Amino acid sequence: MDDFIIPQEQIAGVTRGIKKAFGVAAFDEIRDLTERPGSNRAFRIVVKGPAYLLRINTRPGDMTRHFSCMQAAAEAGLAPRVHYASTEDRISITDFVEAVPFPATDALLRLPAALRALHALPPFPVAPFNTTCTFLLTKGPALDAFLQKFRTANILPQPDLDLLFTRYTQLAAVYSSLDPDLAPSHNDLFKPDNILFDGRRLWLVDWEAAFQNDRYADLAVVANMLVANETEEQMYLYEYFGAPPGSRQVARFYLMKQLAHMFYAMAFLSLGSAGEAIDWREPLPAYYDFQRRFWRREVDLADNHSKTVYGRVHWEQLRHNLRQPRFDEALRILSNPHGS
Fold first, then answer.
1. Exposure pattern of 66-77 as b/e (b: 16+ CB <10 Å)?
2. Whole-angstrom Cα distance, residue 60 to residue 159?
3. Do residues 196 and 222 touch, judged by C-beta distance below 8 A?
4. Radius of gyration of the chain (CA)
5. What is the full DSSP assignment across 177-233?
6. What is the DSSP letter of 60?
7. At 55, is the secondary structure helix, strand, or coil?
């Protein structure tokens, strides 16, 4: 066992995992894949020929929920095969995916089909805290504090802040009145790193945030990254529903996309600004140009500036959308419980 790569306190657990999974005491090769300080530890290991992903979860979280969701997805062919998982040691060993570039045009059809299969699985456990855009629909002290902190942070000019909260209030009132449409959800697909393609099929990885959530949350965050126009939207939704979507499905999808813009704009503007004023005069890439670069892993959200840019592109797209007739039309359709 490599004491210089594996954290000292995890060596015993890793040794147990490798022996349990493969019947040997150690791996043959190891390469550290950990993204940055504070991230969960990840390693590519080779054992008796094949490569595997060894993951050591160092962040707090419910490992029972995490591993049960990952196992269910793996058994459905949506996640890499799980060879070992220990909630006590917070360690998992799965097949390693040799990822290749995943064209957005291909993902536009493959991903909604994968989400359809994911959302058809038996229900996932609930989570103690919602880290997705549907957090903005979860009434309580945590949401109140989040909204109040953003209101008083002086991040957006006052007219923009007024527009945001007026439209958010309208959206939340209408959407919260709908019947829940919960499904097993990944909940962390706004990051393309969690969507891998091996040249033949796609895999969803990193199930740390998985829980039973509104099915439109996964649909919306992926669409906000990939879907650039209404023609692509129709293709995307057809692949998910297996039929042309109805007007209420389209309206619900559209409002969830705006909720996702709201959530990521507020979250990343807050994180990126870190209490400092944002230079709104700084040139900004067009939304879909930025998202295409993000999809191709050409953008990293590691530093505060990139977080601010990510928040700004979501805000600029949202500000445009909030002024469009389609927003009011979606509210009208969903406000009518009996028709379109």
1. bbbbbbbbbeee
2. 39
3. no
4. 21
5. TSPP-EEEE---TTSGGGEEE-SS-EEE---TT-EEEEHHHHHHHHHHHH--SHHHH
6. -
7. strand
Q: How many CB atoms lie within 10 A of CB 80?
A: 22
pLDDT in 10s for each residue of the chain, 340 residues: 554 588 888 999 999 999 999 999 889 999 999 887 778 899 999 999 999 999 999 888 899 999 999 999 999 999 999 999 999 999 999 999 999 999 999 999 999 999 999 999 999 999 988 999 999 999 999 999 999 999 999 999 999 999 999 999 999 999 999 999 999 999 999 999 999 999 999 999 999 999 999 999 999 999 999 999 999 999 999 999 999 999 999 999 999 999 999 999 999 999 999 888 899 999 999 999 999 999 999 998 989 999 999 999 999 999 999 999 999 999 999 998 765 5
Class of domain 104-335: alpha beta
Fold of the domain spanning 8-95? Phosphorylase Kinase; domain 1 (3.30.200)
How is residue 41 annotated by DSSP?
A: E
Domain ranges of the chain: 8-95, 104-335
Quote the CA–CA distance of 184 and 204 in Å, as a whole number.
Answer: 13
Q: Which residue has the tokens 């709908």?
A: 178
Structure tokens at 128: 């103690």
Q: Which of 293, 109, 300 is nearest to 202 (CA)?
A: 109
Cβ–Cβ under 8 Å, residues 102 and 63: no
Same fold, 8-95 and 104-335: no
* 313, burial (CB in 10 Å: exposed 0-12, middle 13-18, buried 19+): buried
Beta strands in the chain (DSSP E): 29-32, 41-46, 51-56, 82-86, 91-95, 182-185, 195-197, 202-204, 211-214
